[in-house]
Amino acid sequence: MLYLSLTDNSLELLETKKGLIGDEKFVSVSRKLLKEKVVELGLITDSEGLLSAFREALTTAYPKEIKEKQISLVLPGDQVVIKRFAVPLEVKVTPDWIIKEAGKYLPQDISHYESYFKEISGKNGKIILFTALPLSLILSYHHLFSRDKIKINFLSVAPFSVYAFLRQKIAEGETCLYADLDKHERYYLLDYEGPVTVFHKKSTGKLITDLKSALKKLDDEKLKPSRIYLAGEKSLEAKIEELSETLSLPVEKMSQLISDNRMQILPGQTMDKIDTGGVPLFYFDKTFGLINLAKLSDVPNFASDLKLIEERYQKTASAVIPADEVKIPVQPAPETKPMMETVEVTSKEETVVAEEKSVIEKETEKIKEEPLISENIVEYKRSQPGMFLNKFVWFVIALALGLLTVGGFLVVRQKGSISLPFLASPTVTATPTAVPTVTPTPTIDAALKRKDLTVSVLNGTDKSGFARTTADKLEKDGYTLGTVGNAEEDSKETIVRIKESKKNFLPLLFSDLKEEFPTVKTETLPSDDKADAVLILGQ
């Protein structure tokens, strides 16, 4: 299976393969930076650019090319609607009641969305966790990947993948705030059951100011996190102790959490067994979460029935997207504001209200004719312990019975599965964990000084002056320069050779090189070399 996390800035890919007894292992990893305005707030704005970047990420994967044709995909959370609403004591929860309540928060009628809900038992009664994603957005990615005969088996959004990653870190009754620090900062408030609320805002450039503003917004909604997790490149140099003291809340970096060698994504594969080819692990937090998410049965899968979604979109959309072409933005909603921040709709045109009421009444009549729930909204439930059996146990049973009944066939059917929005056999634990094999990538130490790393730059290409230009850039960043010249032989790829004692500088060096060299291979430099690191520039 190929797990793909997509943001406005990059693609992160992790490929896994299953062994004879169902054990899953990482086999390839890749990261590709996107050009500007290829994806904006989760919407495809340059389909050719995105597809080209995806193809390149497949061919340049480490340690080998990825050829998998089935993917699990997690999109940015900007276009998702996530809302919780209380259930009055006198109300019986039914799909038509949920549709009516959800209509208060959706920019369009619910027929334009793939929607899910989960009923939660709270201290003050029942609560509905409702989530919806536009049909047009789902189909835009489906059509795009279909051009390369790629099938999307599982589709979700970042708030849910982050929840799956942090799930084991959140105790009942607690909430945590995940802050993805970028030009547009994303904030996901999570509790034991899933996302509580999501919102984003433009960065002011001052971390403490931005975090205080986010906490103020939550406080206005009577929400208070128990802990804050900082993600994104801007989090690397954050001073955790100062932030924790100023905000009066525990603050932790996702990069530190991911570097915990006790964590597992796949059984038996801890973080110290991961080899990403030199790409820092913290870039893959949403991809790690996606691996856990795709194996759970209490989360929505927005690609559970793409054929049905296509049929529904044909009926509801004013313009149909051709199956062989993706136009953007494909969002049918006329809204200019991203839908990630779930702002309550307090007033609407009378005609729109009448139209929504009419649609809701039609949906309600349709629901009454059907046994459980409408096609527009699906309940997803928490998996039960006895729902799935360990694959290894099945293998042993099958082998034993096969030896006893030579020439016979054994058919084992799993019972008790819930055919709701998705079905995926989970691993024994959903605890966050790992990717391919070897040296764990250290996180950036805020105390590191670039001048303490002597870097030699060697040109392994036929580009004249390439080494000098790169060396000047590193010197300007603050590094101490060693030898600048030509490599002994041409190199097809860019390589960083670094002494074992200086490997804690790798994430910092990669961060400074990422724009010019998004993919860099790492090797160990002999301890007696005059330089601390040697950068060999490849084709």
Description of the structure:
The chain has 539 residues and is of the alpha/beta class. The protein has a domain at 450-537: Alpha-Beta Plaits (2-Layer Sandwich), CATH 3.30.70. The protein is built from 13 helices and 23 strands. The strands form 6 sheets. The chain has a 5-stranded mixed β-sheet, sandwiched between helices. Strands 13-12-11-14-15 form a 5-stranded mixed β-sheet. Strands 20-19-23-21-22 form a 5-stranded mixed β-sheet, covered by helices on one side. Strand 8 and strand 9 form a beta hairpin. Helix 3 crosses helix 9 (306-316) and helix 4 (158-166) crosses helix 8. The radius of gyration is 25 Å and the shape is globular. The model is unreliable at 319-375, 381-393 and 406-442 (pLDDT under 50). Keywords: Membrane, Transmembrane, Transmembrane helix. This is LytR/CpsA/Psr regulator C-terminal domain-containing protein. The chain crosses the membrane at residues 392-412.
Coarse structural class = alpha/beta
Helix content: 25-40%
Indicate the mean pLDDT. 77
Strand order of the largest sheet: 3-2-1-6-10
Largest sheet: 5 strands, mixed
Quaternary structure: single chain
Distance between the termini: 30 Å
Shape: globular
Q: How many E strands?
A: 23
Q: Give the low-pLDDT segments.
A: 319-375, 381-393, 406-442
Query: What is the fold named in CATH at topology level of one domain?
Result: Alpha-Beta Plaits
Rg result: 25 Å
- Gross CATH architecture of one domain: 2-Layer Sandwich
CATH class value of one domain: Alpha Beta
Beta content: 15-25%
Counted by DSSP, the helix tally is 13
